[in-house]
Design a protein that fits this description.
This protein is of the alpha/beta class and 508 residues long. Strands 11, 12, 13, 14, 15 and 16 form a 6-stranded mixed beta sheet that branches. The chain has a 5-stranded parallel beta sheet with strand order 7-8-9-6-10, with helices on both faces. Strands 2-3-4 form a 3-stranded antiparallel beta sheet, covered by helices on one side. Helix 12 packs across helix 13 and helix 13 runs antiparallel to helix 14.
Length: 508
């Protein structure tokens, strides 16, 4: 103990040009005017960055076995010719590029039936940075929810592989998705009441599960629906290539076995080598190459006049494509030039198709929700105005009308009326309170009405109002004539295909 004062005196007087920088997360760090990439046990960067040490609290399940060449001939070769495994591996390699091109975190979610091969794709991707199974770099969704900040920080600028989405708590998924993308933890206090340093991260995510992100969020209850921002952060991709081999293009069982064995036989070498090649090439030069590749991808594969949400999603696919193509140039994967772009383009097309087109997701959701309500209740909760009694009379005769009306009252009860419908005008007239509380539940009623009007599905009133005033004639139930404010929805809301397209089959 008596030597403590001497040690302090020595440290105060010692002069040295050497510096050791301790960092609390993996990935890129600016050291002076240089950039270095921190991993457990290794820092990749120029020599003049000095010594950079990763704090042990930020260690993730990184591990290394074998050589780069062995990984290339193992996982790289087994994945060749299969778009989804190539997409997953390219995503794992895209982690270090997010900082270079200035993109936020986020990733892809491979969903599909059990044993389709989605987890195998994730394991192949995990082998880029560590052992490709649940004992290594593949983590479970259930455990991630409890320590999302530490988990994300330990995967910064690399890849976070999450398996079994179904095990996640639907109530917490919404917050996890935002956290993974936003890249910043909560502000907390230390024991001495000072503010702790906020954790931050930037991570590429590969998730797998049997349901989509939107379905999982809906499991949270209270009528929750996935927001467009969440669906752009985690892009749903079907883990079925549609060729009878699940996630693989051919030889499904053999390919899955080969990838699984390779992912636990040689691992953790490709990711660090990828970063070394980037550093050797130079970040500025790499940035220029990436910008060119991504721009070409966007121009070729993004439909014209796509909504901003689609452009954001497409940018993520573009950087994934660029990562894969760069790995091909570096010789890290034995794929043919253009394979990574082909995989990302296929995934982009799948994602656009699943979300319902290139428009804003909120608008598509609004139309689908109104359409669903009308499909469910058009016959039971909408009183037919103009031809109701005429149709009954044609079928059963005038003397049967009263009996049928009374029976209909008992079966349905117009006290639960949602509105009226006119076969003559091909319109539904929805009562305002029903529109607000039921039809547009969870959405902005005015925004929904505007969306329908913009798509020619809603008729405005005389004063350009979203509601019209409709005269409702008295009917056999004893109701007198009345004027009602309603939302007038026309039958075009049920059109699923393109206008002018012939029906595949006449139902009646």
């Amino acid at each position: 103990p008596s030597a403590a004062a001497l040690l302090v005196a020595y440290l105060a007087a010692c002069k040295t040009d050497e510096r050791i920088t301790i960092v609390n997360r993996t990935g890129w760090h600016d050291i002076g005017d240089q950039s270095a990439f921190a991993l457990p046990g290794e820092t990749i960067g120029p020599a003049d960055c000095g010594t950079v040490v990763l704090d042990e609290g930020a260690y993730g399940p990184y591990a290394m076995k074998g050589t780069v060449e062995a990984w290339t001939n193992g996982v790289g070769k087994a994945s060749s010719g299969h778009l989804l495994p190539m997409l997953a591996i390219s995503t794992a390699l895209a982690g270090p590029l997010l900082h270079v091109v200035g993109l936020e975190g986020g990733g892809i979610h491979l969903w599909g039936t059990s044993s389709s091969g989605k987890t195998t794709c994730a394991q192949a991707a995990a082998s880029v940075w560590g052992r490709g199974d649940s004992r290594g770099f593949v983590r479970g969704w259930s455990a991630t929810a409890n320590g999302i900040e530490a988990v994300a920080a330990s995967a910064t600028d690399t890849c976070l592989v999450l398996d079994e989405f179904g095990m996640a708590d639907g109530r917490s998924v919404e917050g996890i998705l935002y956290a993974l993308s936003n890249g910043a933890g909560k502000q907390r206090m230390a024991r001495d009441q000072s503010l702790r340093e906020v954790k931050n991260w930037r991570v590429a995510v590969i998730s797998t599960g049997e349901i989509t992100v939107a379905q999982k969020i809906a499991e949270g209850g209270n009528g929750k629906k996935a927001k467009a921002g969440q669906l752009v952060r985690m892009l749903d991709i079907s883990a079925d290539r549609g060729k009878g081999h699940g996630a693989f293009d051919h030889d499904g069982a053999a390919t899955a076995d080969a990838l699984k064995k390779a992912a636990i036989g040689v691992y953790g070498t490709a990711g660090p080598e990828f970063v070394r090649r980037i550093v050797a090439k130079g970040l500025d030069e790499t940035r220029n190459v990436l910008a060119e590749t991504m721009a070409a991808f966007m121009k070729k594969h993004v439909p014209p006049k796509s909504d901003g949400q689609v452009l954001r999603g497409a940018q993520r696919f573009a950087v994934i494509a660029a990562a894969g193509e760069l790995a091909i140039d570096f010789g890290l994967v034995p794929w043919t030039q253009g394979d990574a772009s082909k995989a990302a383009a296929w995934a982009l097309a799948q994602w656009i198709d699943q979300r319902g087109g290139t428009g804003a997701a909120e608008k598509d959701q609004a139309i689908r929700q109104v359409r669903l309500f009308l499909e469910l209740h058009s016959e039971t909760r909408f009183d037919l105005l103009d031809t109701y009694h005429q149709k009954i009379a044609e079928k059963v005769g005038d003397n049967e009308i009263e009996r049928i009306v009374e029976k209909k009252k008992q079966q349905v009860g117009f006290r639960n009326r949602a509105g009226y419908r006119s076969e003559k005008d091909a319109e539904y007239y929805v009562l305002p309170e029903v529109w607000r509380d039921e039809v547009c539940k969870g959405l902005d009623p005015q925004a929904v009405a505007r969306t329908l009007f913009e798509n020619g599905m809603l008729r405005k009133g005389a004063k350009n109002e979203l509601q019209i005033v409709k005269r409702i004639k008295g009917n056999a139930e004893g109701e007198n004539d009345a004027r009602r404010r309603v939302y007038a929805i026309n039958d075009s809301i049920f059109e699923q295909g393109e206008k002018g397209q012939d029906a595949d089959e006449d139902l009646f």
